[in-house]
Every structure is written in structure tokens, then in C-alpha cells.
Amino acid sequence: MIALDPRERFSTSVRRPDDRIDLAECSLLVAAEEYPELDVDRYLERLDALASAVATRIGAAASEEERVAILNRHLFVEHGFTGNQERYDDPRNSFLNEVLDRGQGIPITLSIVYMEVARRLGLPVEGVGFPGHFLAKYAGASQIVVDPFFGRVLTEPECAARLRSVLGSEAQWEPGVYLQAATPREILVRLLTNLKHLYARERDYGRTLAASERILLLTPDMPIELRDRGLLYEQLDCFAAASADYERFLQLAPDDASAEAIRGRLTSTRRRTGRLH
User: Is residue 3 very low, low, confident or very high in pLDDT (cuts 50, 70, 90)?
Assistant: First the structure.
């Protein structure tokens, strides 16, 4: 039997319902396109080992707050997982294997480590797509918000202050909105969007396209992503593919602010592929 390559495995995995998507495995499959020799199972076992090492202490905890404190100490103090503040834009921070090897990452990858270790311990920890800075939360009888990038628990006033620092002083704090759990699909889209922006900034269009393609495996009819992939195809002189994405974007979002510009680009890419309309 021929083994599937990382893209095929990723595609197969993300076709499952959200509650059956293995977030850690899919995050590692994202990394496997950059690291062809990556042993996905070995890194999944690393997460298993991180959980096993603290399971007894977690099981003996008397309260939810104590469970969170034990897990935080285990990951952030004993194992030293922390945010890479000095080289935040290093692409390695977005690859789960590198985060597990180096102990450094960005908010979303450190939150994935936190969530996946917690899941293996039976703890109800979810990801939170907080504006500007991904978080995790313990969603039991108590709701405890954790910032894995800085390795600490956040109070609700601190969350509200962070929200205003991102959205402006007039932003109204609504916990039910801003602390809503993110689905595995949403987390993977955000992870890949981070990579896409990093590569686009470096004008690495091949890697930017690879990130965009995987975002569209997760959300096939996301209009803005179809538009962006069309722009990448055009940049790479793939005019027929660009035209197809522009057409689909205009079907889905004919009134988008960028629609008129894309109509002009579509006319150009059709002309360059010699298509008659």
C-alpha cells in the first residue's frame, strides 16, 4: 500500500466532521510539507508523554483551579514552553514539531500544545480565537482563561483590557463573544493564515500558495481566500487557474469591496489564456 503524502493525508483528515478532526495530527501534517522526513506519529507520542508525566498530579488535584495550575507549571515551568518574543515572525514558530523541539512558539501553536496535552488528560480545554492573540480556556464549572504565550492565567478584566488594546477603547467586552470556543477547523485556518502572511511578506509565492490551498481544503467556499489564491496564481502565471478562482469569488461575493478590481483582473487573465466569452 502506497503511503499518502502530507497534503493528501491533510485533505483526508479535514474532510471529517469538526469533532473528529485530530488537531495535533493535522497541525503536524501542515509542518510535514516543510519537513518531508517528519515522523508525525513520533511527535504525537511526545504529546502523549507530556500528558502521562503529569497525569497522577492532575488526578489528585482538588479543584479545577488546581488542575490548571498544575498543568501550567508542568508545561510552562518544568518544560519551559514559552512565546518566542525575540523572533515572533520566524516560520518555525508555526510548525508544531519545532514548537515541541524548541519549546518556543506563537500563541496559536503554544495553545495547540496546551489543548492537546489537556485533551489527553481528559480536561475540558478549548482554543479561543481572541482578536490579535490566540488563547486557551478551561471550560468546566469554572471558566479559566490561559495565555500559553506568556504562561499565565488571565482575569476577565485583563481580557477586556486586551480587547480594547486591539479593537479600540470603545470596544464592549462580551465574554460570550470573545471567549467563544474555536473549532479545530477554525484553528487550522488561523494557523495557515499566519503562515500565508509570513510567506507573502517574503514574496515566497510558492509557499504562500501552499498555505492558501490548504486553507481552501478546510473552507472551500471562503470568498476572500479564493480571491487571494487567484491573485497568487496570476502572480505565478497560472492564468486559467486564476480565472477560475476569480469567477468563483465573484459568484460568492459580487458586492465585495474588491469585486470591481477582480472583474478587471478576470478580463485580463481570460485574455491571457485565450478564452472566449
Answer: low
Cα–Cα distance for residue pair 149/51, rounded to 1 Å = 19
- CB under 8 A, 24+ apart: contacts of 211-215: 213/7, 214/7, 214/10, 214/30, 214/188, 215/189
Q: How many CB atoms lie within 10 A of CB 34?
A: 17
Within a domain: 1: no
- Condensed to tens digits (0 to 9), the pLDDT of residues 7-64 reads 999 999 999 999 999 999 999 999 999 999 999 999 999 999 999 999 999 999 999 9
Q: Do both 174 and 197 map to the same domain?
A: no
Residues 68 and 163 in one domain: yes
Listing DSSP states for 243-255 in one string gives HHHHHHHHHH-TT
Each residue of 163-207: pLDDT tens digit? Answer: 999 999 999 999 999 999 999 999 999 999 999 999 999 999 999
Q: What CATH number does the domain containing 193 carry?
A: 1.25.40.10
Please tell me whether residues 57 and 189 are part of one structural domain.
Answer: no
Q: Identify the bridge partners of residue 83 per DSSP, sorted by sequence position.
A: 105
User: Scanning the structure block, which residue is given the C-alpha cell 490548571?
Assistant: 68
